[in-house]
Design brief:
The complex is a heterodimer.
Chain A lengths: L2 E5 L2 E2 L2 E2 L1 H10 L4 E7 L3 H10 L4 E5 L3 H4 L3 H14 L3 E5 L2 H14 L3 E9 L6 E6 L4 E7 L5 E4 L14 E4 L11 E8 L13 E5 L9 H11 L2 E4 L1 H5 L20 E5 L5 H4 L7 E6 L12 E4 L2 H16 L1
Parallel strand pairs in A: 1-4, 1-6, 4-5, 5-11, 6-10, 7-10, 13-14, 13-15, 15-16, 16-17
Antiparallel strand pairs in A: 2-3, 7-8, 8-9
Helix pairs in contact in A: 4-5, 6-9
Chain B lengths: L2 E6 L2 E3 L20 E3 L1 H16 L4 E8 L5 H10 L3 E5 L9 H15 L3 E5 L10 H9 L3 E11 L2 E7 L3 E8 L2 E5 L11 H7 L4 E4 L12 H4 L2 E8 L7 E4 L4 H11 L4
Parallel strand pairs in B: 1-4, 1-6, 4-5, 5-11, 6-10, 7-10
Antiparallel strand pairs in B: 2-3, 7-8, 8-9
Helix pairs in contact in B: 2-5, 3-4
The chains are: A alpha/beta, B alpha/beta.
The structure holds flavin-adenine dinucleotide and adenosine monophosphate (AMP).
The site of adenosine monophosphate (AMP) has 25 residues of chain B, from helix 1, strand 4, helix 3, strand 6 and helix 4.
């Protein structure tokens, strides 16, 4: 059966959830072969095998951590040349897209980014994308070379599908030309203990209406009562009230949770671009005319400082 | 020699307008209002700041690949303070995808001459965010992308890339390609003087022949990808809206419980 390369996104061997989703999608097209770069393959391999990887190609070189993106392109190209896959899938992170793009140039292929679904088709894989701030859904195909497709988080439910997943070393030579951009230092992000924004089943976001960093605990308390991730509008981020990593929207994260709660957010097109595909949308806003109310399944016109804390108490009581 | 900066800017349909597809499933750029992609204003701004930090010893060329009206985007960038503009325009470019666009941009950048290429983080229509990496690959120079802070000194570009799991400090020797995010600093508004001056700044138009590119390499036919269908997403049906008169939180909790969220 045809093989599909899946680029593994991990932190020291801890495989991130979007990779498991990629393995699930890859199985629709062929047999997933995972490509694991950097340390930790012993930790990652059993998880990858559990989710359907027939093989894990592993390479570790200091250059992966010392230089930006290009050394990983060299490695993925080596994997491509070794396997001759029918498609290459990567997560739609900034890095995943850049690696995919450069690989596409090298192997003479087209690239599709930010797919929300991938299916097998008569003429190769068909990718579904959500475009123009999620107002259109497109289906596209790559017509030249080996399809390179990057897939957004939350595009499929990871399924267990145990496979062999034997680890094979991949020989990689990092070209001098790939050592152009030095990573001088790296400061890891501190974990908040809350779910990842892009992976969470529930997201509670605050906007300009939250009116100050000192008030964001009101949003956090509701999020914690629901086991949710915390998001923010760009207005709240630009004001310095909440970190940019939590921004939802066109220039922040795209989220597609089961439930999205927007408090004090007007619903500008750029914000909608990042949350419009959520299953259920709820808004709390004191302006009945706010465009966010056009999207909601349930909306409360009211002061968030009254509604949100009371809701938090209700949730806690009901959950016992 | 003065620093040669090329800023890649895209002319895009206004996001607050009605964006849609044309019959051939390309983005309709004729029937809608277009403008300089807001995210590319940040690229122009950083180029201007780099020039200022370099005692103004730099020349900034703004470059676009796009239809006739894309000149508007170039004029806006010139009115912000860029020195000259290059517009690649050719009927055969209609329908070109990311790989094709990167081919055209790379040739135009080489023809213009450069030490530093500055891009936006993503276009506001395609939102791919891959062009800068594609350019670095094609030009064979380092890529320092998605920077929220950038500086150029001593023949090197340095900057900070804020990723999901870490924030990284990067360094690359020139020539290089960078892209900057909307966290890099608000873009300036063109002054009246700037707008007047822009009208007299040089704007060169190139076609595919000028760049030694064959028509078959680009356009809809030459594209590496094919859009097979585009369907408008059904508008969300408007839900229940209540006004809080003391019971709002209870009513909302009731709804959430009904949906099994609590
Ligand atoms: C290129 C570009 C990219 C962008 N990318 C993003 C992005 O990724 N994400 C993003 O979010 N935005 C983005 N924006 C910005 C976007 O256009 C809006 O400016 C932003 O989303 C507004 O944030 P907001 O809704 O919090 O603020 P506002 O629009 O000011 O809305 C605040 C809302 O809070 C309500 N409110 C105030 N006080 C209370 C209260 N006590 N109780 C209840 N409600 C209250 C008000 O009625 C109002 O509706 C982008 C813009 C551009 C040009
Ligand atoms: N047609 C174009 N002309 C000039 N620059 C472009 C064009 N398309 C994309 N770019 C540049 O590449 C960046 C990323 O675009 P994209 O990969 O299409 O999201 C943009 O912010 C621009 O700086």
């Amino acid at each position: 059966m045809a093989e599909v390369l899946v680029y593994v996104d991990h932190v020291d061997g801890a495989v991130r959830k979007p990779t498991l989703e990629l393995l699930t999608l890859a199985r629709r097209i062929g047999e997933p072969v995972a490509v694991h770069l950097g340390a930790g393959v012993d930790t990652a391999a059993p998880v990858l095998a559990e989710h359907g990887a027939v093989k894990v190609l592993a390479a570790d070189a200091p250059e992966f951590a010392e230089y930006l993106v290009a050394p990983k392109v060299d490695a993925l190209q080596a994997a491509h040349d070794a396997v001759s896959p029918v498609a290459v899938l990567l997560p739609s992170s900034a890095e995943g897209k850049e690696i995919g793009a450069r690989l596409a140039v090298r192997i003479g292929s087209g690239i599709i980014t930010d797919a929300v679904d991938v299916e097998a088709g008569d003429e190769g894989p068909v990718a579904t994308q959500s475009v123009f701030a999620a107002s259109y859904t497109t289906k596209s195909r790559i017509t030249k070379g080996t399809p390179v497709i990057t897939v957004k988080p939350n595009s499929a439910a990871p399924e267990a599908a145990p496979a062999a997943g034997a680890v094979e070393q991949l020989a990689v030579t990092v070209a001098d030309a790939s050592k152009g951009t030095k990573i001088v230092s790296r400061t890891p992000r501190e974990s908040t203990g809350r779910p990842e924004l892009t992976e969470a089943a529930i997201v509670v976001s605050g906007g300009r209406g939250v009116n100050g960093a000192e008030n964001f605990p009101v949003i956090e308390a509701l999020a914690d009562s629901l086991g949710a991730a915390v998001g923010a509008s760009r207005a709240a981020v630009d004001a310095g009230w909440y970190p940019h990593t939590n921004q939802v929207g066109q220039t922040g994260k795209s989220v597609s949770p089961q439930l999205y709660i927007a408090a004090g957010i007007s619903g500008a097109i750029q914000h909608r671009a990042g949350m419009q595909t959520s299953k259920t949308i709820v808004a709390i806003n004191k302006d009945a005319e706010a465009p966010i109310f056009d999207l909601v399944d349930y909306g409360v016109v009211g002061d968030l400082f009254a509604v949100v804390p009371a809701l938090t108490e209700e949730v806690k009581t009901r959950k016992g | 020699m003065s620093l040669r900066i090329v800023v890649c800017v895209k002319y895009v349909p206004d996001a607050t307008g009605d964006r849609h597809f044309a019959e051939d499933l390309t983005v309709d750029r004729d029937d809608v209002d277009g403008l300089l992609s807001e995210l590319d204003e940040y690229a122009v701004e950083q180029a201007l700041q780099i020039k200022e930090a370099n005692d103004d010893d730099a020349e900034i060329t703004v470059l676009t690949v796009g239809p006739e009206d894309a000149t508007d985007a170039l004029r806006k960038a010139l009115s912000m303070g860029a020195d000259k503009a290059v517009h690649v325009e050719d009927d055969d470019l209609h329908g070109t995808d990311a790989l094709g666009t990167s081919l055209v941009l790379a040739k135009a950048i080489e023809k213009t001459g450069y030490d530093l290429v500055v891009c936006g983080m993503a276009s506001t229509d395609g939102t791919m965010g891959v062009l800068p990496a594609l350019l670095a690959e094609r030009l064979g120079v380092p890529q320092a992308t998605q920077l929220s802070q950038v500086a150029v000194a001593d023949g090197k570009v340095t900057g900070r890339r804020d990723g999901d799991t870490a924030s990284e400090q990067l360094e690359a020797a020139l020539p290089a390609v960078v892209s900057v995010t909307d966290q890099s600093g608000e873009a300036r508004y063109p002054s009246f003087k700037g707008i007047m001056a822009a009208k007299k700044k040089p704007l060169e138009t190139l076609d595919l022949e000028d760049l030694d590119i064959e028509a078959e390499e680009v356009g809809l036919e030459g594209a590496w990808t094919k859009v097979e269908s585009a369907t408008e997403r059904p508008a969300r049906t408007k839900g229940t809206i209540v006004t809080d008169e003391g019971e709002g939180a209870k009513q909302l909790a009731e709804f959430l419980a009904g949906q099994k969220f609590i």
